[in-house]
Fold this sequence. Notes:
- By secondary structure, the chain is mainly beta.
- The protein has helices at 27-33, 139-142, and strands at residues 10-13, 16-19, 48-51, 59-62, 113-122, 131-132, 149-150, 154-155, 162-163, 166-170, 190-192, 203-207, 211-216, 222-227, 232-237, 241-246, 254-258, 265-271, 276-278, 284-291, 293-301, 304-305, 315-319, 324-332.
- The chain has two helices and 24 strands.
Amino acid sequence: xxxxxxxxxxxxxxxxxxxxxxxxxxxxxxxxxxxxxxxxxxxxxxxxxxxxxxxxxxxxxxxxxxxxxxxxxxxxxxxxxxxxxxxxxxxxxxxxxxxxxxxxxxxxxxxxxxxxxxxxxxxxxxxxxxxxxxxxxxxxxxxxxxxxxxxxxxxxxxxxxxxxxxxxxxxxxxxxxxxxxxxxxxxxxxxxxxxxxxxxxxxxxxxxxxxxxxxxxxxxxxxxxxxxxxxxxxxxxxxxxxxxxxxxxxxxxxxxxxxxxxxxxxxxxxxxxxxxxxxxxxxxxxxxxxxxxxxxxxxxxxxxxxxxxxxxxxxxxxxxxxxxxxxxxxxxxxx
Length: 335
Ligand SMILES: [Cu+2]
């Protein structure tokens, strides 16, 4: 007899099999369940997460005396995109499918997908000049291409486009956003380079499960230090090497720094869904395949969430299926 610690329910949305909760957002929910786990047994039975009536993906707790003809495993906190199909080896003998599935409400239907795009521009009159960094070590390498600058406002002088702004869809609490079929796969590794002691790009956003390849083309060592609420890493990257690292999704920006060169600065986001973008050199962004409906969009710059437009809670957009919603030009002001 094998262990069956925690029940999870699969929600079928428009042909997509999804879990109804995320590891982080629902951590307070399943933390209690872990105490129910007994080695080699499912007794007592764990509660079942199942979609609430009339809600698309928000789960609620209901009592259950069966494992619903399915098997159990502990949701991974490190990667919320986990298989919705339990392995037979995860089953308890006495929880084998009975042919009487638990009664659930009709699954939510994805009505379609939409695209959101726009342009973030610096809203002030004078583009702030970046401060010159104090390069206190490895000057031969770090100053090889000139002085180093702390570029907080990466503004394109020709159109005031602001690069390095993170724009993302904010799920409702405990909501697991449906994922478009084209975006089910984990994206290719993201490259975080550090030429001449500069994080390149300075601001990045990845999806949970996506590997970061930290490159070091320099002849000196770098340390990639990641500090977030759930992430705390310090990875040494020797000269002329690459190192791979993986982050846990969290709902905050993480500070990226280098243990060897304290002036190096960057910021990273790791989302448990694919609906995010980082503005390009013109301040432009586009987020494709957003599930249609009423969605909240959030705009973040390293100086903070955009006030007056889309604070942390987000601005509500009504996204019709098949539509491309252009948010136009959004001004980011100095705080
Ligand atoms: Cu460094």
